[in-house]
Design a protein that fits this description.
Distance between the termini: 110 Å
Helix content: 40-55%
Strand content: 5-15%
Order of helices and strands: HEEEEHHHHHHHHEEEHHHHH
Shape: elongated
Number of strands: 7
Low-confidence stretches: 391-407
Length: 417
């Protein structure tokens, strides 16, 4: 009868649990570390691992724990002959690194590379919810800051899920483990305090005095764009799509003879009517209309030699009529000039801070959350979640709304009246 390779190598060996656990090492090995061979009922072949130690007692403890772990996996219906996670990460990277992917996918690839430092000799049958959490903690600890917020954990769960889904679809794992759930942060969003907004307004005239006609035009438009968002709370994309026919006059029920402004807006929650918080925004639209009318004499403009600005044309646009893609760069330049780029708690202000400022000011003024939510195209729950630093006093006038029938003529002269 042929001898086994282990017998030919003159092994020092020990047998436990009726042969279920078998420890062995080469007698002439310089390190003398014990290897483990397990035989489990119902499993074809052996489970072979290294104990990593030359101490027989410690080697048996490791082997026995491994044996119990394998029995538990069998009972749970999990495989015992799974591949190492490290090889699965290498295969995932090889399959995706050479292809053009969405911007966030680069973060998925970076995470896959980072996790190679964690998985070592771990195998796919080790992956469960607890192991996913271990992965997330490892990524957080090895990131730039060494910690991660709950929102970052949530994003990283999505990225790990992308990797695991690929493993499942390529038979590295039989099924998806249950992913951990992290609650979103209830952050108060950065806005402008009264004093900081006063600094912004004070810096606007100096900011507008720029060299070059194109730069002056862009800065002029930015200033009035900011004032419109400050008084309406519109999202940037919503403001980008406003046309002159979307603007109309409404009466202020508390101030007869005072004209306010209502805007027909198409936002991510559908179409709505948004009422400005102050009639002052009328002057901003009037200034923008006057600027646009200057394009009637500009040969490079889309409305050159027209009788007037078409009601269907965009409010915030270049001379050629195309929408302005972003004000972010010039917005930051103005904030730097005013010295208010960051909120008191250190967060960077963005154009979206204008929407947060509007919400904060309206709530502090006592506008009821239900009416404000409808005016902003959001929900009461979102207001309560992100603007907990405000307070309502109740019993204030509701935001007024009017509908203009389709086909009505659009009169813009009231802006300059």
């Amino acid at each position: 009868m042929a001898r086994t390779r282990a017998e030919k190598a003159e092994l020092d060996n020990r047998t436990f649990l009726d042969g279920a656990i078998y420890l062995y090492r080469r007698k002439n090995s310089t390190q003398g570390k014990w290897d483990i061979r397990l035989k489990l009922l119902g499993h074809k072949g052996y489970i072979i691992r290294s104990s990593g130690t030359a101490n027989e007692h410690d080697a048996y403890k490791i082997a026995h724990e491994l044996y119990l772990d394998c029995v538990a996996k069998q009972r749970a219906g999990r495989r015992l002959d799974s591949k190492r996670i490290a090889s699965g990460l290498d295969d995932f990277l090889a399959a995706h690194e050479q292809h053009n992917k969405p911007a966030d996918f680069t973060n998925v690839l970076a995470m896959a590379r980072m996790l190679k430092g964690l998985v070592s000799k771990d195998r796919f049958d080790d992956i469960d919810t607890a192991y996913i959490v271990r992965m997330l903690h490892y990524v957080a600890a090895n990131g730039r800051k060494g910690i991660a917020s709950p929102n970052t954990y949530r994003r990283n769960v999505t990225r790990i899920k992308t990797i695991v889904k690929w493993w499942v679809s390529n038979s590295y794992m039989p099924s998806m483990p249950t992913m951990p759930v992290f609650q979103a942060e209830q952050n108060r969003r950065p806005h402008f305090s009264d004093s900081d907004w006063a600094k912004v307004e004070a810096a606007m005239p100096r900011f507008a005095e720029a060299e070059g006609v194109a730069t002056r035009r862009d800065r002029f438009m930015l200033i009035h764009w900011m004032m419109v968002l400050y008084h309406t709370g519109l999202r940037m994309g919503e403001a980008r799509g406003i046309r002159w026919e979307d603007i109309r006059a409404i009466a202020d029920p508390d101030s007869p003879g005072t004209i306010n402004v209502a805007l027909n807006v198409a936002g991510k929650t559908g179409k709505r009517t948004t009422v400005a918080s102050s009639g002052e925004v009328r002057g901003n639209f009037a200034a923008l209309l006057e600027l646009r009318r200057g394009d009637l004499q500009n040969p490079a403009a889309d409305i050159y030699l027209h009788n007037d600005v078409p009601a269907s044309s965009l409010v915030f646009c270049h001379p050629n009529g195309r929408p302005i893609g972003s004000f972010k760069k010039s917005f930051l330049t103005l904030l730097k000039m005013a010295g208010v780029t960051h909120s008191p708690d250190g967060r960077v202000r963005t154009p979206y801070s204008l929407r947060h400022t509007y919400a904060t000011e309206r709530l502090n003024a006592g506008v009821q959350e239900y009416h404000l939510a409808r005016n902003m195209g959001t929900s009461v729950a979102m207001l309560e979640q992100h603007y907990g630093h405000t307070s309502t006093v109740g019993n204030v006038r509701e935001l007024t709304k009017q509908r203009r029938k389709s086909g009505d003529a659009v009169d813009l002269e009231w802006l300059a009246a």
